[in-house]
Specification:
Elements lengths: L1 H71 L1 E14 L2 E13 L4 E9 L2 H14 L2 E2 L12 E5 L2 E7 L6 E2 L3 H9 L4 E7 L3 H13 L4 H8 L3 H5 L6 H10 L3
Parallel strand pairs: 7-8
Antiparallel strand pairs: 1-2, 2-3, 3-4, 5-6, 6-8
């Protein structure tokens, strides 16, 4: 009996010490995992905060650039068309807008957009027009360099350069194009359809075919004065006209 008691008393401390020694070994690992998770979440939250601020800054800059660009451009609403779709329970109405945008200094574009509301359709058309702007060479910054013709579908237009003081002799969609372009003197005539979409496209066909004497001279490897002097003008007059050309 005495031997059994001594054995029990000797084994019990061994077990307790083993348990005490094993417990601290597991705690640092758990704390490390929890700490790692906490640090990971903190970094993620900080990263998300920085990313959110970066996106907001980019959006603000993009909004400011669009506002600045919108202040410089001339926007003309040419046509709004209302369409309806018959569905079960009634009709659904939609709107299509045609917009012309220009800077008044030789750049112009057009675009169209569709939406359920008029303001949204105009916004879409304006954004589309800004993406498709083209450069048109102008004589003295007020009129076209030469006469031209444009055609799209059943739409046919004739455009002619005019002397100073003539004004914009054009009607409907064509007037909006030339006002946005910055042309002050021009004579136009529309032959064929009165569809504003086809008239606008025909007008842009005529404008994209415009060439300046400077571009023709560069293509042919000659001077501008040589081209302008072929109409019977003297060399001095041709050089003066060449120096006065402003694209």
């Amino acid at each position: 009996m005495m031997a059994d008691e001594t054995n029990n008393t000797e084994e019990t401390p061994v077990v307790e010490t083993a348990a005490v020694e094993a417990a601290p070994a597991e705690q640092p690992q758990q704390e490390g995992r929890e700490g790692g998770r906490g640090r990971g979440r903190g970094r993620g939250e900080r990263g998300e905060g920085r990313g959110g601020r970066g996106r907001r800054d980019r959006d603000d800059r993009r909004g400011r650039s669009q506002e600045e660009e919108g202040d410089e451009l001339i926007e003309k609403l040419v046509h709004i068309n209302r369409v309806s779709k018959t569905v079960k329970g009634g009709k659904r109405f939609g709107f299509a807008a045609l917009v012309v945008v220009g800077d008044g200094q030789g750049r112009v574009g057009f675009g169209h957009g569709k939406a359920r509301e008029v303001p949204e359709a105009i916004t879409k058309a304006t954004a589309s027009a800004k993406k498709k702007m083209v450069r048109v060479p102008l004589k003295e910054g007020r009129t076209l360099h030469h006469d031209g013709k444009g055609r799209y579908g059943a739409g046919k237009v004739n455009v002619r350069s005019a002397p100073a003081g003539t004004g914009i002799i054009a009607g409907g969609p064509m007037r909006a194009v030339f006002e946005s372009l910055g042309v002050a003197d021009v004579v136009t005539k529309s032959v064929g359809t009165s569809n504003p979409y086809n008239m606008i496209r025909a007008t842009f066909d005529a404008l994209t075919n415009q060439v300046s004497p400077k571009s023709v001279a560069q293509r042919r490897g000659k001077k501008v004065a040589d081209l302008l002097g072929r109409g019977g003008a003297s060399e001095a007059e041709a050089e003066a006209d060449a120096a006065a050309i402003v694209e």
